[in-house]
Amino acid sequence: MSKRSFPALIAAGALVAMTGCAPTITVEAGPYATEPICAQVVLSLPKTVLDQQRVKASGQTTAAWGESGAAITFTCGVEPPSPTTQDCQSITVDVFGIPEVFDWISTETETGWTFTSYGREPAMQVQIPRSLEASQPTGALVDVASAVAYVEATHACL
């Protein structure tokens, strides 16, 4: 190898290394993140949610899809919601060929939507930023359903 090609090779290698590194999305771990089932849930999450690619998340038993500032986040081990009159949405999804009902407490703010699982402990939370401009944010709940199903439902929305 000539002396002139060596610096070019190093520069090309650095460029590949920099472009191959996706940023880590900061996601705070839930207070019950150490629940053993949370590890199985997070490992079972899909590579894409709402057509966004999975990226690295910072917190224990968390996940993220998309880019910084517009990332969908998932947290296992959040505080379980108590019975409430808040908007509870029931979504039926076929999981491994069997219809299963998933209940989610939804909250909409100016920054986006937060969905917290209801009736499953440890509870899980999905956040979808408004900046993503998702026409159907509940589609994310369908995308993560097969992983959420690892936590048994013990209560349901009324």
TrEMBL record:
<protein>
    <submittedName>
        <fullName>DUF3515 family protein</fullName>
    </submittedName>
</protein>
<dbReference type="Pfam" id="PF12028">
    <property type="entry name" value="DUF3515"/>
</dbReference>
<dbReference type="InterPro" id="IPR021903">
    <property type="entry name" value="DUF3515"/>
</dbReference>
<keyword id="KW-0732">Signal</keyword>
<feature type="signal peptide">
    <location>
        <begin position="1"/>
        <end position="29"/>
    </location>
</feature>
